[in-house]
Amino acid sequence: MNALVVAALVAGFVLLVAGGEALVRGAGSLARTLGMSSLVVGLTVVSFTTSAPELAVSTDAALTGYAGLAVGNVVGSNIANILLVLGASALFVPLLVNSQVVRADIPVMVVLSVVALLMALDGNLGMLDGALLFAALVVYVAVTVVASRRRAAEDPEPGREGAEDAEDPENPENPEGTVRTASRARSVVRDLVLVVVGTALLVVGARLLVYGASAIATALGVSDLLIGLTVVAVGTSLPELVTCVVAVVRGERDMAVGNIVGSNVFNLGAVLGLAAVVAPGGIEVAASALRFDLPVMVAVALVLLPIALTGSDVSRWEGALLVGFYIAYIAYLVLAATEHAALEPLSAAMLWFVIPLTVLWLAVAAVHELKRRRGKRRAASAPDPQDGVAAPEPR
User: Fold this and answer.
1) Which of 85-89, 230-234, 368-372 has the lowest mean pLDDT?
2) What is the DSSP letter of 391?
3) Given this model, what pLDDT does residue 384 score?
4) What is the mean pLDDT of the chain?
């Protein structure tokens, strides 16, 4: 492994982060100009643009014959998004989980994760599999946007009508309308430039990253699947991490959670789906990924369901738990690749202590939360003793 490979790897990461940042800024601003809510922006535009590095890397890897890198990038990124990115973001500020995300979008992510695992059981993701995954993504986006616009029409923001009148250039009573429209047009042009520049940086950065990662895998004698699950997955998840941390610091906690859920859906539907479509003969899925990594991806997706029910947020200590699980996962991958003696005690500890204890706690917390919400609904539906019904006199 020479200095050129290291330089290509570093340059690829830098270009991916820079391209992702430009894409997020341009796409997010453009979506808001078009009147989309912050939650929908997080679920669609921001999550898709922050997943653009994964799309660029996996597509390039599939076309150049590195199937393990293509699969490992998607699976590793989805695991890193929930355990590392969501967990690290919750360490800053407890994350609000909007009811829409709980009811619809998290289950969509879980279902797509299970479907991807079932499709890969034969050891190959073919063109038809990829087309079905991508079609599911298109339906998801369409339903999300339509539902958001319907809710916005039913519950308009206060003062919105006045704002629209002020922006009407043909309204003679509002001479500032023309100036506002021109400013909006300049903003749209600027956002489109950022999107184009960001996309270009992502393509170049992905090429450099795939070259550097494959060279490192060859030099170290490890599989490209392992490199994709670790180094490349973390690198391509950096835009999600930066976006989520910035979102929670600015108080947009809905966007942070929506970004993670939307990114994972995009990774499965577009990144894995399109990579399977363009790869000659489909993408070969390694047996080790079927035995361990894909089931872990499904299990991690399922973790969000009970966490979303515990108080409708992800607390700091739950975030620390998620980050701890990610550290254990990476440690397992490294120990398994090097056949280290510590692999067996780590596996035993995870299998017989950490995982059962965590599953038990999540189940208890979910049942407790459901009972609490049921009690609230009963209390809200109970008749008020002061509402036309005389309270019984004390004896």
Assistant:
1) 368-372
2) P
3) 58
4) 75
Q: Is the pLDDT of residue 49 over 60?
A: yes
- The DSSP code sequence of 87-103 is HHHHHHSPEE--HHIII
Q: Give Cα separations from 320 to 4, 91, 116, 210, 323 (angstroms).
A: 37, 7, 28, 31, 5
Q: Are 51 and 267 in contact (CB under 8 A)?
A: yes
If DSSP codes are grouped into helix, strand and coil, which group holds residue 279? Answer: coil
In-domain check, residue 392: no
Say if 24 falls within a structural domain: yes
3-state secondary structure of 124: strand
| Helix, strand or coil, per DSSP, at residue 138 | helix
| Calpha distance 260→293 (Å, rounded) | 19
- From the list 259, 249, 265, the residue with the least C-alpha distance to 50 is 259
Angle of helix 67-80 relative to helix 294-309, nearest 10 degrees?
A: 20
Q: How many helices (H) and strands (E) does the chain have?
A: 21, 4
DSSP E strands, the chain: 95-96, 124-125, 283-284, 313-314
Residue 50 sits in a domain whose CATH number is: 1.20.1420.30
Q: Closest Cα to residue 300, out of 317, 325, 267?
A: 325
Q: Please give the tally of structural domains in the chain.
A: 1
In a domain, 385, yes or no: no
pLDDT above 50 (res 103): yes
pLDDT band at residue 111 using 50, 70 and 90 as cut-offs: very high
Closest CA relative to residue 309, chosen from 245, 370, 237: 370
C-alpha 17/C-alpha 31 separation (Å) is 21
**Per-residue confidence at 113, pLDDT binned at 50, 70, 90?**
very high
Beta-strand pair 95-96/313-314: antiparallel
3-class DSSP assignment, residue 313 = strand
Please determine, for residue 52, whether its predicted confidence score (pLDDT) is greater than 80: no
177 falls within a domain? no
Q: Which domain holds residue 309?
A: 3-156+188-375
Phi, psi of 313 (to 5 degrees): -155, 170
CA distance 69 to 75: 10
By C-alpha distance, which of 287, 292, 282 is closest to 343?
292
